[in-house]
Design a protein that fits this description.
Strand order of the largest sheet: 9-1-13-12-10
Number of domains: 1
Mean pLDDT: 86
Number of strands: 13
Structural class: alpha/beta
Radius of gyration: 18 Å
Strand content: 15-25%
């Protein structure tokens, strides 16, 4: 499993003020994504929507989803931009059945995770996760890609107005995802995320009991933490050295 930032600034061409450290961070992400051809992304709710889009942020990029098959897999050819995206949005709005079926809010980080994988020329399997369903296990044939946003309000010059306790929230979140995953503290952090202007919703859907996490790349951009965090079940660490699953990501930490 790989935890990645859920902000649209992760995608190429979105941030016109992007520093070199962020480009290097994205290159490391693409190298990590190259370790599997297909990645799983969990979709909140019982159904996969017909479209994932960043239009709500004023970014004309989205993914058209064919839901006719049993396995909902998207590729780079399903990405829509500009007028093509606008036309697809208009078509779906005119289809009452589709509009009613998609009447749920999908976190923007989910769309970012899908687009990031497609940007790296990977394929993505979209997995619906109905309410009440057991959390997805960290170990699976196709690795899981999970968006996670640290606080956007942890510094006076961060994008959002500073919020009390946001910097401490980020510190606690990073500690909880270092070494043996601290699921007790993670549960508390999930309940505090909104107040800290962070988003941990997708991470909360993953069963991380007895999991081990390691930060493999890190950079702070516009005073917001960006992290790539590899997560494996504890039993993977006990396997003999040299097995393919032992090291889910290279150790290439980058600091801005």
């Amino acid at each position: 499993m790989l935890v990645i930032p859920g902000t649209a600034l992760l995608l190429e061409g979105v941030d016109q003020r992007e520093p070199a450290a962020m480009r290097e961070f994205r290159e490391e992400l693409h190298r990590l994504l190259d370790r599997a051809q297909t990645w799983r992304v969990a979709i909140p709710g019982p159904r996969v929507p017909a479209l994932l889009s960043l239009g709500g942020l004023g970014i004309g990029t989205g993914v058209r989803i064919d839901r006719t098959g049993d396995d909902c897999v998207v590729t780079a050819s399903d990405v829509l931009r500009g007028d093509d995206l606008a036309a697809e949005v208009g078509r779906l709005r005119g289809d009452r059945a589709v509009a009613a079926d998609d009447d749920c809010e999908i976190p923007l980080g989910i769309a970012v995770a899908v687009l990031a994988a497609l940007e790296a020329s990977r394929t993505v399997q979209l997995v619906p996760t109905p309410a009440g369903r057991a959390p997805l296990a960290a170990g699976h044939a196709e690795p899981l890609l999970v968006p996670l946003d640290f606080s956007g309000a942890a510094h006076p010059d961060a994008p959002l107005e500073p919020r009390p306790g946001a910097a401490d929230f980020d510190d606690r979140l990073e500690r909880a995802l270092t070494g043996p995953v601290d699921t007790t503290n993670l549960s508390l952090l999930h309940s505090e995320a909104a107040a800290a202007a962070a988003c941990t919703e997708a991470l909360a859907a993953v069963d991380l009991i007895d999991a081990y996490a390691r930060t493999v790349a890190a950079v702070d951009v516009h005073h917001v933490r960006y992290r790539l965090i590899a997560v494996v079940p504890a039993d993977v660490l006990a396997r003999p050295a040299g097995t393919p699953a032992e090291h889910p990501a290279r150790s290439a930490k980058q600091r801005a």
